[in-house]
Amino acid sequence: MRRIPRGLFVALAVVAACGDDGSSVEVDAVPSLDASGAPDAAADAGVDAGADASGVPLAGFGGITGMCGVLSPAELDGMMPRWFDGELDFGADRYDDPAERDRLTTGGLEIILDGNAGGSSLYSEVFAFEWLARCELATLLKTETEIIYDTQGKKADLLVSIDGRKVGVSVTRAVMFPFGNDYTPAAATTLLDGKLDDIQVASTLVSAADAWTTDMLVVLAYNLQHAQVAMQAWSALDAATRGEVIVVVVVTSGDDLFIYTDS
Fold this sequence. Notes:
- It is a single chain.
- This protein has helices spanning 41-45, 73-77, 106-114, 122-136, 185-205, 224-236, 239-242, 257-261; strands at 13-14, 27-28, 63-66, 82-89, 139-143, 158-162, 165-174, 214-221, 246-253.
- The chain is of the alpha/beta class and 263 residues long.
- The protein has one domain (41-261).
- A 7-stranded mixed beta sheet has the order 3-4-9-8-7-6-5, sandwiched between helices.
- A hairpin with a 2-residue loop joins strand 6 (158-162) and strand 7.
């Protein structure tokens, strides 16, 4: 089991927006440790530590910390790329399917039941949605296999609604094999370049009935180092590649290998 103490995770904040000339975005991503470095009891139990005054995160499977309840209509309707982050800590409580399906949101359960279009990413899609539902009050409109396209090609993993906006969501994982190896800038750049392009292409192929107004990429990161390298790689991409995609990076911790093995 791997654990990132809650005090280790700090915001990867965008402090300057990119310009039309494709200049990079500056990033502040300096980790810090709290005095004890120890996870709290809620993390050990694999449950949410409690909502703040805004009512989020909602209760659910895994403890959520970080930037939660931050996606406003301004971000969803904006023209600039944005980056938000947080941590999803499973503690010692690995998700066991199907025994713990009753601990998922309604949308998360539907994703499990519908399955995806193939590959080994079902659990990452489920918990990417769980993050959006519990932090941003997202509702699931359609799963990957339900979205209709006029032309076959790149696809979104999820179609969700946030603040009345349709959002096409692509989900990916920032991880190196074998597990525990440092994430490299080259790997991060290849991953983000491809996934950012995919969701933007998918938005041009989707049918009018399912068309979304906001592109989003949710990245589940194996640890803090992976998240930091991904952020640095994103900041170095040109403006055309970043597009107007909202990127959410969620560091997973605790007994979380099922996210990366899909088993």
